[in-house]
Amino acid sequence: MRTALRIFLLAACATAAFADKVVLKDGRSFEGEIVEETAEQVKIKTARSALTFKMEEVDHIERGMSPLQERNKRLEALDGEDGGAYLELAKWMATAPKEVQDEKVLRRLCSAAAYLDPETAAAAQNLIGAWLLAAGKREDAADAFARVLKADPANEEAKKHLETLNSEIVARCRKDLDALKAAIEKARDLQYAAAIPLLRKAGKLYVADKCRDFVKLSIEELADDCQRRIPCPTCKGATTRQCTICKGKGTTECVQCKGTGVRKSAPPNPTFAQEICSHCYHTGALLCTGCDAERWLTIHYQTEVKGKKNVDVKVSAGVEKVELSKVVSLSKWTSRDGNVKVTALTAGQVVKGGTFTCRDCKGIKFDPPSEQPNTFGMADYLKAIEARMSGGETIEGVPVPETVWDPAELEGGKLKWKAGKWE
Ligand SMILES: [Zn+2]
Ligand SMILES: [Zn+2]
Ligand SMILES: [Zn+2]
């Protein structure tokens, strides 16, 4: 009862402090949320109704805080002890405008509520569970509902959610086991070319983290090990591939100026600023984005800028404009301070690009390890996978939580919010 009253008072104060206010010329004032404001009238939604006033009746309007300001103010009002207040704020945030909803903050609020006050645990975990479910984070939602049941074993709604989510997770685990089995089988049978792509995709699968226990290598390391045993079929063992877009040059001809570097619409006897092709910066060629090429550009000034007439700038494909504009004004073609004219711009050699590391072998060279592949370890691993598939060993599904709050969310134990972060 006392908690309920305190929450009520807190909510009441909060509304008063954060609301918009319309003050009329006759002295009356109304608080709420301004939902419409034009030159002629203002419409305010109060707790009881929506009211519209002609502007000529209105003395002035006081603006409340933006939802984000209000959120931060509310966060800063938390005292690090009152679990109920954390839950109330979480409730507010879960229904607040989208820009105010922050998953990380919301999760921490709910876990803090459950941690500080066991009475609020079921409601707090239910709230975050429902929110995560709506956000499509089904496994995280399942964890939250499992905590609801830990706090309140009779909670029917959580039980129903958990059953659905749990069977979903078990079904997903079964699919994972199939994929993992196929990958390990290929590796065990020394079919490296077939095994490698399957292993590369298997790292996050259910029980993939057990690979090291049996094979002495993680899934990723096993993929690398297989890769060393064959020349990559894609790059024939070269580990790099020529970029097909620029044919290994690192640059492509500028389509705007057809490689001349000069703008088509330049007037007769143009100045440098008038004739430079804004696309390729007078170089006639653009850095290839297909291979993330890089090159040097040299800016030539009319007179010295900071003691230098020529300045070299290293630029990267796709961001040339950004990098160049740090040094010179691209609209006026002068030094950044605007005092010295640019008279020419020349391109140096391409320092990176033309080729890229082969994506299939990730640049791993054909270099067979002296040790034989650990086929015995792989066979044991397969037995463990098959035991789960046949039901000999249970698929865990949603783990039973140890606490009604999520310890990961309360890491560091910081429960007070100050200047945009937990302290
Ligand atoms: Zn390229
Ligand atoms: Zn051009
Ligand atoms: Zn390759």
Order of helices and strands: HEEEEEHHHHHHHHHEEHEEEHEEEEHEE
Q: Separation of termini?
A: 30 Å
Individual helix count:
13
The major pleated sheet works out as: 5 strands, antiparallel
The share of residues in helices is 25-40%
The CATH C-level class name of the largest domain: Mainly Alpha
Strand content: 15-25%
The overall pLDDT, averaged over residues, is 90
**Poorly predicted segments:** 1-17
Bound ligands, named by name, code or SMILES: zinc ion
Q: Structural class of the helices, strands and pairings? A: alpha+beta
Number of domains: 3
What is the oligomer described by this structure?
Answer: single chain
Strands, total number: 16
Net shape = flat
Based on the coordinates given, report the CATH architecture of the largest domain: Alpha Horseshoe
What does this structure look like?
Helix content is 39%, strand content 19%. It is built from 13 helices and 16 strands. A 5-stranded antiparallel sheet has the order 4-3-2-1-5, with helices on one face. Strand 9 (294-305) and strand 10 (308-316) form a beta hairpin. Helix 5 (121-134) runs antiparallel to helix 6. The model is unreliable at 1-17 (pLDDT under 50). Bound molecules: zinc ion (3 copies). The site of one zinc ion has 10 residues, from loops.
